[in-house]
Design a protein that fits this description.
- This protein is 78% helix and 6% strand.
- With 604 residues, the protein is mostly helical.
- Among the domains are: 61 residues, no CATH class; 280 residues, Orthogonal Bundle (Helix Hairpins).
- The strands form 2 sheets. The protein has a 4-stranded antiparallel sheet with strand order 1-2-4-3.
- Helix 2 crosses helix 3, helix 11 crosses helix 12 and helix 12 packs antiparallel against helix 13.
- The longest helix has 170 residues.
- GO terms for molecular function: heme binding.
- One of its GO terms (biological process) is signal transduction.
Length: 604
């Protein structure tokens, strides 16, 4: 099926349901979420049906309800796009013209195969509407019929008569009469089932009427031998019979005149049929055929006018954009011309400036050569300084090792002092025990009397010695305590200085490492600067050649300035022509609208 109708269906679903659901359904079938279908694009039927089956599943409605709702909504969409197809007095005439619309579509769109519609009136208010389609989209068709009834604000009764795989036959009953049929009994009687010539019918009716009236006259006036009266009666009766016969049999002539007047009034809506079994019926059938053809042609005309109107609207917008663009181009070209003139002047000024720059670059290149020698000397000094710093770092590491030894010796000395303190404590305890023993000995000597006097003297000496020993031990203990405190302080100071020295040594190591990296980078930069100096010298030579090329460009800039001014004049003329085209398109649009108004007067 064609892309134009698929796009319309998708647009309808986007209005009725969530955009995300429609996008997901499109992506599930391999299309983009914003997929667009060109009007002449052929879209595979199976993919289209699969798409709307997926949408129905996602929105939780049956497929027949989905297609029916799409059909009802599409009536409004088609009315907006093709309003000319809806210029009818009632629903009957609109539905009757649908097959003509499909014929127009088949002519306009190559390869289009719309369904075939047959519309046959079976009574004043009933028609048989047959829908033939190899796709079998009956629910969509029912939605279109119901949507059309809502648009024309009419109530219709729909009865399904027959349905198979490719055909649906409905009986539609309308509220108002849809056709008019007039039967002329005398014309039908005089045809006798085979006479279709109205002149022969007039002759037959004239003969019958003449005979009847003649017999009545003869009987009424009792005429026997009066030939004059008989002749006059026959002439009068013949004239009257011919007049009356013509009057009777030419009654359909009024309907024909009425139809012709409808043509003059541009009214092709009413379909009237007559039954006379003669030329009048043939004439009326030809008139109806002509009306049908005219309606079909005007359906095409109105569709063409709608397309022309849409086309002129698009062209008008495009021309308006072209006009705005041409104005912008004109402004740009004018600015370009001004810029070209300014560029030529600036180019000439730049030549002098460039010449000075070339001289300065040459001077800088010479200075860079001198700087290169000084830079090489500075790099050598930096290398020597780095080596000295590295040697200092090595010596500091050795000093750290010695500090570590001093710290360890201080800790061992502290340990020894603590051991001596323990020994002194033991001696103090022994002195106390000795003093106690001397006291006990003195007591025992006193008990012994004279025999124990000598022992008492010895005991006193021992006690005195013990007390002196205890005093000496206390002094030693106090001195050792002070010595241990001094050692602890010394160890702490050594440890503190050692930690500071370790930290500083670490910083120095990082500095040495950074200096090493910096030294490498400096050497690299120095090499690059030396190379840059050489390249600068080469570029200075190249700039001299560029200077010569710039002089040539200055001449070209002057030529471009003249060309830009000429282009500016041409663009101005082009802008004037574009505005003329825009005015012509506006005029054509007005003509199209006038033509549309003229066609709208024809009621089909």
């Amino acid at each position: 099926m064609k892309g134009t109708v698929v796009s319309t269906w998708i647009k309808t679903c986007r209005k009725q349901y969530s955009e995300n659901i429609i996008n997901e359904a499109l992506e599930n079938l391999g299309w983009k979420a914003n997929q667009t279908f060109s009007p002449l694009e052929d879209v595979e039927d199976t993919r289209v049906f699969k798409l709307f089956s997926t949408i129905a599943s996602k929105v939780n409605v049956s497929e027949d309800k989905l297609w029916k709702s799409i059909g009802k909504d599409n009536i409004r969409t088609f009315q907006q796009d093709y309003p000319g197809f809806f210029h009818h007095d009632n629903l009957y005439h609109f539905l009757k013209s649908m097959d003509d619309v499909h014929s127009v579509v088949m002519k306009r769109i190559k390869g289009a195969k719309p369904p075939k519609l047959q519309f046959k009136a079976i009574s004043r208010r009933e028609v048989i509407f047959t829908y033939n389609s190899h796709r079998g989209m009956f629910d969509y068709f029912m939605g279109l019929v119901e949507g059309a009834a809502e648009y024309f604000n009419e109530q219709i009764e729909i009865k399904q008569l027959e349905k198979n795989e490719n055909q649906l036959k409905l009986k539609l009953t309308f509220q108002e009469d849809i056709q008019y049929k007039k039967s002329y009994i005398m014309n039908k009687i005089l045809s006798f089932g085979f006479i279709k010539d109205v002149h022969l019918k007039i002759s037959i009716l004239t003969a019958i009427l003449s005979g009847l009236f003649l017999q009545l006259v003869l009987v009424f006036f009792n005429v026997r031998d009066s030939h004059i009266l008989t002749t006059v009666s026959i002439i009068a009766i013949s004239l009257f019979s011919v007049y009356l016969s013509s009057k009777i049999l030419y009654r359909p002539y009024k309907e024909i005149i009425k139809e012709v007047k409808n043509f003059s009034n541009k009214d092709y809506t009413v379909l009237t049929r007559i039954e006379t079994k003669d030329q009048f019926e043939e004439i009326f059938n030809e008139i109806n055929t002509y009306k049908t053809n005219i309606r079909r042609d005007f359906v095409g005309f109105k569709g063409l006018v709608d397309e022309m109107n849409t086309f002129t609207n698009s062209i008008s917008k495009f021309a308006e954009k072209m006009g705005n663009t041409s104005d912008e181009i004109s402004d740009v070209v004018e600015q370009l011309a001004t810029a070209a003139v300014s560029q030529a002047e600036e180019t000439e000024h730049s030549i002098y400036t460039l010449n000075d720059n070339v001289d300065q670059i040459n001077n800088i290149a010479g200075e860079e050569q001198n700087n290169k020698t000084e830079l090489e000397g500075s790099v050598d000094q930096i290398d020597n300084s780095f080596k000295e710093v590295e040697s200092t770092a090595t010596e500091i590491n050795m000093l750290l090792d010695r500090f570590k030894q001093v710290q360890d010796n201080g800790l061992r000395l502290k340990s020894k002092a603590e051991q001596i303190t323990e020994i002194v404590s033991i001696v103090s305890a022994i002195s106390g025990q000795t003093n106690l023993l001397a006291l006990n000995a003195s007591i025992e000597a006193a008990r012994a009397g004279e025999a124990g006097k000598g022992f008492a003297v010895v005991a006193d000496e021992v006690r005195n010695l013990s007390e002196e020993t205890n005093d000496a031990v206390e002094k030693i203990k106090n001195n050792l305590s002070e010595f241990v405190s001094e050692i602890e302080k010394l160890v702490e100071d050594v440890a503190s200085q050692y930690n500071v020295l370790v930290k500083e040594n670490s910083s120095l190591g990082q500095a040495v490492e950074a200096s090493s990296v910096a030294n490498v980078n400096i050497n690299t930069v120095a090499d690059k600067m030396i190379d840059t100096s050489k390249r600068l010298e080469n570029e200075a030579n190249s700039m001299s050649k560029v200077f010569q090329n710039i002089e040539s460009l200055a001449a070209i800039a002057e030529e471009n300035s003249a060309s830009a001014e000429e282009v500016s004049a041409n663009v101005t003329d082009y802008t004037v022509h574009i505005k003329g085209i825009t005015d012509s398109i506006s005029t054509f649009k007005e003509m199209t609208l006038d033509f549309k108004d003229e066609i709208s007067q024809y009621r089909i």
